[in-house]
Design goal:
Length: about 270
């Protein structure tokens, strides 16, 4: 199960969504390993797009949602993506940089994300005349084969000029199995252990992405925090009995800056 705010979705349903999305992406012309760009916050659609593209042998290119039109335009052109999936409220900041030939799919910004980022209702909705991801996906026939896996293509921060896309060659089955074993050892995430994973960092970053997608492949309960907030994190740990999470030093610093009475007010056992 994946949980976000008051919404939740079971694995059978999200797999069915990804299967329909794979059919739709193929109908849009996705083939030959061409990347699919996506500018999404942590949401159900992030997992749907990643799984659907991988099924067709294509990597996703997660784009930092802080970027502006010129930067996004460069990444789309550089990676060669012909499809971009984007949250509705992010579209206005990039639309002037998206080439006219790009096929756009817009995901309505869900209530918990809109609340976390102070998005007004009119910007959270899919703009008139644009393709709504949910409606488009649900209109597709289910993909008949197995869902696949492909390594995402991340872009560096561009400290030497333009960002650089890092694309991995397809792994052989034995390499994939070995990588999965190493990831499970590194992150401590394993199937069948009733683990509850908190995703509190943006999955456009490589480490949160690999962490969240590993938990997804292993069928863990995943709780999505729309936007990192130290006290909100403690509330989620207490509410859902979180067993695993990925955190970076800045997050620990912000947790430690909370008043001691606030920190001790939550059961994180």
């Amino acid at each position: 199960m994946i949980i976000s705010g008051e919404r939740q979705i079971g694995y059978p349903e999200i797999f069915a969504r990804a299967a329909r999305a794979a059919t739709g992406l193929k109908a849009l012309g996705l083939a030959g390993g061409t990347p699919v760009a996506m500018m999404l916050r942590n949401d159900f659609a992030f997992f749907e797009v990643s799984s659907a593209a991988a099924t067709l042998g294509s990597p996703v290119v997660p784009i930092n949602w802080h970027l502006k039109a010129e930067e996004v335009s460069y990444i789309i052109g550089d990676c060669g993506a012909g499809i971009l999936v984007c949250h509705a409220d992010l579209w206005p900041q990039i639309r002037d940089g998206v080439p006219a030939e790009i096929k756009m799919l817009i995901v309505a910004t869900p209530p918990e994300i809109a609340a976390a980022f102070n998005v007004p209702p009119e910007l959270a909705a899919v703009p008139a005349g644009m393709t709504d991801w949910d409606s488009w996906r649900d209109a597709q026939a289910p993909w008949s084969g197995e869902l696949g896996r492909a390594s995402p293509m991340f872009y560096t921060s561009g400290t030497t000029g333009r960002p650089k896309g890092v694309r991995r060659a397809a792994m052989r089955p034995e390499q994939m199995a070995a990588a999965e074993r190493v990831s499970s050892l590194t992150y401590g995430i394993r199937p069948g252990e009733n683990q509850v994973v908190l995703m509190n960092g943006p999955m456009y970053h490589s480490a949160p992405n690999s962490y969240g997608m590993l938990a997804f492949r292993h069928g863990c309960t995943i709780v999505l925090e729309p936007r990192f907030d130290p006290e909100d994190l403690l509330q989620l740990v207490q509410k859902y009995r979180i067993t695993h999470m990925h955190a970076v030093p800045t997050m620990f610093v912000r947790l430690l800056r909370l008043p001691e009475e606030v920190r001790r007010g939550y059961d994180v056992s």
